[in-house]
Amino acid sequence: MNEFERRVAETTGQGLFSREIEILQVNLGFRCNQRCAHCHLEASPMQGEMMHWPTMELILEAAASADCRLVDLTGGAPELNPNFCRFVAALRQEDHPVQVRTNLTVLLEPGMEEMPEFFRDRQIQLVASLPCYLKDNVSAQRGDGVYEKSVEAIKRLNALGYGSEPTLPINLVYNPGGPFLPPSQSALEEDYHRELRHRFGITFTRLLTITNMPLGRFRKELARQCQERSYLDLLRKSFNPKTVNGLMCRRQISVGWDGTLYDCDFNLALGLPVNHGAPDHIRSFRPGDLKIRRVSTGEHCFACTAGSGSSCGGALV
Is the residue at 7 inside a domain? Predict the structure, then answer.
């Protein structure tokens, strides 16, 4: 056992094991129209990794066999995959609930003019990145002009019913601007609702707080500022055993752009696939062997158990 697994074992009596597959998370590629400072995958407009249609067909079969409650599409910017709309339409035709993780600004790119209506017409759930309600903080993390474009995109989505219609949720995502833990999710959500409504008249469904992973560009910046060790120590010292039951790797599995299976998108960033004898590629997807599997872990996993916990669905406790 590594250090993280030993801490988990103090709570569970064993290493970390999954329990079921509620969510099938699919990374459609690393290409993105942004180049964010905190990105664990180091996505950018220059990245060429992209999922192809034959892999998507295997995922359609896997989603049916796993009987998962949600297919969660991510990237990069998943909308930039040439087969994105075809894949989403096929998933919805099979009645799979679909969630898309959007950076918002991609919806203003050329060729994306009809994407908001495409989302609405198929009742796609949205998780949208907006790491702060203040312009300066967003600009520092995501680049100049991103704040204004994000607000414009949310306004367009609001006009279509997102954030007000029960079937059209849009959840915003907060990431800390530095090497510290997120504040209380519920308190920060109140601030977001108040400030965004007052400043722009825009609404959203929920706020999700996600701890920055010590991976990718964020880890490089920590190293540059000689803060890597202190941040890792903070994550370890903030380990909260109450978060272990809700860890996302226990209820979901991630499919990389090339079909490789991972316990989560962060393990994907590390090239750490499903292990311990479980199938590690979508070609050999077997729900029975994957529902209860030993999860591959490392020191980065402390980010998910620090403080109130962190997952793709926000705080855990």
Answer: yes
> Whole-model pTM?
0.97
- So what's the pLDDT on residue 276? 86
With respect to residue 94, please indicate whether it lies within any of the assigned structural domains: yes
Is residue 188 a contact partner of residue 209, using CB atoms and an 8 Å limit? yes
Query: Are 137 and 195 spatial neighbours (Cβ–Cβ below 8 Å)?
Result: no
Q: If we measure between CA atoms, which residue out of 237, 238, 219, 240 comes closest to residue 228?
A: 219
Question: What is the spatial distance between Cα 127 and Cα 104, in angstroms, rounded to a whole number?
Answer: 9
Q: Domain containing 82: what range?
A: 3-305
Maximum separation of any 2 CA atoms in the chain, in Å: 53
pLDDT attached to residue 250: 97
Q: How far apart are CA 253 and CA 18, in angstroms?
A: 9
Here the CATH number for the domain that contains residue 234 is 3.20.20
Instruction: Specify the 3-state DSSP secondary structure of 229.
Output: helix
Please identify which residue in the block is written with the tokens 């949600």: 70
Q: How many domains does the chain have?
A: 1
